[in-house]
Design a protein that fits this description.
147 residues, alpha+beta, SH3 type barrels, 5-stranded antiparallel β-sheet, 4 helices, 31% strand, elongated
């Protein structure tokens, strides 16, 4: 095997790279090494996995009477903040299953049905349904906003 002193790349082999390409600014170089999300939706999946489900809590007689008084003060089209239990069975992170988790939502009362023991709450939050039907049995706290 014979090595030749010349090759087809001799004309570019020893060129100074700055002659043809100006040096990149440091601010632009930093963008090259910026982190990116290789797995889209991964952070959301981790966040939903971290939701700790629990069994539905029980209220005492005093808490129930206070809640009933608050429910009787709710009128249609009033703005309220509810703390309620949302049923969502699934793994609770400890190998078992639980019934759901506590949710706080603020919205406008679309309708209230004392005979059927539920109210409809319209929220502006995109992750929630536009109008939620919430049973009185699932409500654990009510704050009526002053208008």
């Amino acid at each position: 095997m014979v090595f030749e002193d010349t090759s087809e790349y001799d004309d570019i082999l020893y060129l100074d790279p700055t002659l043809k390409h100006p040096r990149m600014a440091n601010a632009d170089r930093a963008k090259i090494f910026a982190p990116f999300a290789a797995l889209s939706g991964y952070e959301d999946a981790i966040e939903t996995k971290n939701v700790r489900r629990q069994n539905k809590p029980q209220l005492s007689e005093g808490e129930l009477s206070e809640l009933n008084a608050d429910l009787s003060n709710i009128v249609k089209h009033s703005t309220i903040t509810l703390n309620y239990f949302l049923y969502s069975p699934g793994p609770d992170g400890s190998g078992g299953t639980a019934e759901g988790f506590m949710v706080t939502a603020t919205g406008i009362v679309e309708s209230i049905e004392p005979a059927f023991q539920f109210l409809k709450l319209r929220t502006d939050e995109p992750e929630n349904m536009p109008c939620q039907k919430i049973s009185f049995d699932d409500i654990f706290g009510i704050k009526i906003e002053e208008s």
